[in-house]
């Protein structure tokens, strides 16, 4: 009996194959469209458990789709599309119950009237599930930490089809692993997250021309070092994209404070001769978020990311050199420190807590670029990444054992592998930055 026939009998009206619109939705993700054997779209936790136990017992891979912005297209096995699990509920203590398929833009909108928010990613359409299991580097990361730092509890369906309530008391090791270990340990059907105050924000952007990038980089670093936890910022170096978009450094900023406080903090940047445009004003947290492009742009991004323990002169010089090369290059520096760094390295699976910034550098090449060019551009990006430590899986589009090993220090990865062996010894959940079971 085929998997589709069997699951259709066990879960009437919930299992879909080619030709069904639910199949098409479930197999379509930001990165493309796959050809899985079956898409199951459960409505209840018990239905999730039934589908998982069946696929795991047959040794099939189980891909979990929440917001669809992290999964790569799946060409065999089962996709569990959690689209029906999109609850957003908040209680008087600011504890928020989230379904994994809720989108962060909707979460921000639902919490806004209470002056609350959850520092999540910077994109509205990204899903709760993938981001909350992977880490969550958001706009207010220096003020409120990673999204996983606000996680209090999850409901988890394991590969055996067991439904667990996982928190720091009930299953401390599993709860540790779920905060940064991604979708390796089962299907999360509910998250409980502590929201934080996000009212009274002021922010916006400063654009610079390309005349003196090194000075902008150093000034940004000094501004961020002098600013407290309340000051959050990313610096992006954009390549030119036509006459309307000449490229250059862009600094995005958010502060919980007043506009005059913000202008005082930013004075060294605002005084630079290369300032081209300043746009600073009171802003709602939800308005800091951006809309995602409809799918992955048709380019290859050649580079990677890493945590910078120190934004050193050497690192900034390497960044400026990578940006100045002939190939269009994008660089993003996300300021960390603050609340992000006050969490102990072994408190969650994201261990690089001493980082001053997360650095992302990519040459932007046509999909069919000559291999020699790709290799040369990769070397240029690697010169920057070599000055960082580890990497953040959420910003890594590819999957390999090498990438997983770069995401976690060796002791963290070994600990994750032991947890994996306890809850998913057959590695059913392997459509991710895969953590192989220990042993
Ligand atoms: C345009 C864009 C912008 C982004 N911006 C940011 C950002 O600002 N900050 C940041 O930190 N990250 C960012 N990311 C990365 C993002 O956090 C990850 O790609 C994340 O996995 C997306 O979550 P999702 O639910 O949409 O993905 P999905 O594709 O649904 O899931 C991705 C993976 O997560 C796992 N997973 C998802 N849901 C569950 C679940 N309920 N149970 C078990 N496993 C599950 C699965 O392994 C799955 O393969 C961005 C990604 C994109 C495409």
UniProtKB/TrEMBL annotation:
Cofactor(s) recorded in Swiss-Prot or TrEMBL: FAD
PANTHER family recorded: BINDING OXIDOREDUCTASE, PUTATIVE (AFU_ORTHOLOGUE AFUA_1G17690)-RELATED, FAD-BINDING PCMH-TYPE DOMAIN-CONTAINING PROTEIN
Residue span(s) of domain FAD-binding PCMH-type: 32-198
Protein name: FAD-binding oxidoreductase
Assigned protein family: Belongs to the oxygen-dependent FAD-linked oxidoreductase family.
Keywords: FAD, Flavoprotein, Oxidoreductase
Pfam families linked to this entry: BBE, FAD_binding_4
Gene3D superfamilies in the record: 3.30.465.10, 3.40.462.20, Uridine Diphospho-n-acetylenolpyruvylglucosamine Reductase, domain 2
Taxonomic source organism: Agromyces lapidis
Species classification: Bacteria, Bacillati, Actinomycetota, Actinomycetes, Micrococcales
